[in-house]
UniProtKB/TrEMBL annotation:
The keyword Cytoplasm applies. One of its GO terms (molecular function) is transferase activity. InterPro entries: Acyl_CoA_acyltransferase, Leu/Phe-tRNA_Trfase, Leu/Phe-tRNA_Trfase_C, Leu/Phe-tRNA_Trfase_N. Belongs to the L/F-transferase family. The gene is aat. Residues 63-75 have a biased composition (Low complexity). The keyword Hydrolase does not apply. This is Leucyl/phenylalanyl-tRNA--protein transferase. It catalyses: L-phenylalanyl-tRNA(Phe) + an N-terminal L-alpha-aminoacyl-[protein] = an N-terminal L-phenylalanyl-L-alpha-aminoacyl-[protein] + tRNA(Phe); N-terminal L-arginyl-[protein] + L-leucyl-tRNA(Leu) = N-terminal L-leucyl-L-arginyl-[protein] + tRNA(Leu) + H(+); N-terminal L-lysyl-[protein] + L-leucyl-tRNA(Leu) = N-terminal L-leucyl-L-lysyl-[protein] + tRNA(Leu) + H(+). Residues 59-96 are annotated as: Disordered. It comes from the Bacteria. It is found in: Cytoplasm.
Length: 306
């Protein structure tokens, strides 16, 4: 394992013209529980174009032209577990369509409402706080991206991270769009998270752990790195019970897209250095203290108003 670098990296390289350039932005009237579009490919330009519009791929294995049923429509995603998205079947089509005619193996989604984690809003339960305070783990950024993606694609359930998709995300990483957080015990990778950074919004895609709480540590650590450099939101797409326990909330899609459009061209430089997890316990303690003080002020104001 590399010891990491404090070099925050440069601006992501623009991949060029995208199929999305010919597709209108998501409209508030567009349904939020069915695909926004079908087709296209998994090239860097197509993926970046989608993420910049608040759209993400969810491959289907329904035959071309077939219906989108509950079996292959997206359900709640647990970012701390391997996903259940069906595999990509092909990349033959080179057009995007607003219906499934002739192509339905890659669907593009923009759910409404949208699951997000407000920056600075990650919750740290007592058990996680105690682990962070006592452990000897460390974290890095972008030191083992391929390994994180590979581990996220493992598990007993079929995963949506196929070899093809893993390669697509690795290309986005090479261009500076996709990032990983690694959690280490000495030189062993024990947890991590990866996603796509669009300006000041991080689109979290998947997490894994081989030690209890290591994936949660990855999320807490990313929040601690993201907030000081201008981060606005972590997109988790859907709010599951696990995501809710970590502070995720649902917001209207129009609100999410408004924030995304405001900050998708922002320049955010993340610290890649190797840092101790124990620092996260102190940050969590300070955050708790601030929340308690704020709550006390609110109670005092309410009492004075009576």
């Amino acid at each position: 394992m590399s010891s990491g670098s404090t070099d925050p990296g440069g601006t992501p390289r623009h991949p060029g013209w995208s199929l999305w350039d010919a597709v209108a932005e998501v409209d508030p009237a567009d349904p939020g529980d069915t695909p926004f579009a079908f087709g296209g490919d998994l090239s860097p330009a197509t993926l970046v174009g989608a993420y910049r519009r608040g759209v993400f791929p969810w491959p289907l294995d329904e035959p071309a032209g077939g219906p989108t049923t509950a079996a292959n429509a997206p359900g709640p995603r647990d970012p701390a577990a391997t996903g259940t998205r069906p595999p990509v079947l092909s990349r033959d089509a080179q057009e995007l369509s607003r219906d499934a005619r002739g192509r339905a193996d890659i669907a593009w989604w923009s759910p409404d409402p949208r699951g997000v984690l407000p920056i600075g809003g990650v919750r740290v339960p007592e058990s996680l706080f105690k682990r962070m305070r006592a452990c000897d783990w460390t974290t890095t950024l972008d030191q083992a991206f391929a390994d994180v993606v590979h581990n996220c694609g493992q598990g007993t359930r079929r995963t949506w991270i196929t070899t093809e998709l893993a390669g697509a995300y690795q290309e986005l990483h090479r261009l500076g769009w996709a990032h990983s957080i690694e959690v280490w015990q000495d030189d062993e990778l024990i947890g991590g998270m990866f996603g796509v950074l669009v300006g000041a919004v991080f689109m979290a895609e998947s997490m894994f752990h081989v030690r209890t709480d290591a994936s949660k540590v990855a999320l807490v650590d990313f929040d601690a790195r993201f907030a000081p450099v201008g981060g606005r939101l972590v997109d988790v797409q859907f709010v599951t019970a696990h995501a809710k326990s970590m502070g995720a909330v649902e917001i209207p899609r129009v609100r999410f897209l408004t924030v995304l459009r405001q900050v998708r061209d922002a320049e955010v430089r993340l610290d890649r250095g190797r840092l101790p997890v124990t620092r996260l316990a102190e940050l969590a303690r300070q955050a708790r203290k601030a929340r308690h003080a704020q709550k006390a002020q609110q109670v005092q104001k309410a009492e004075q108003a009576e």
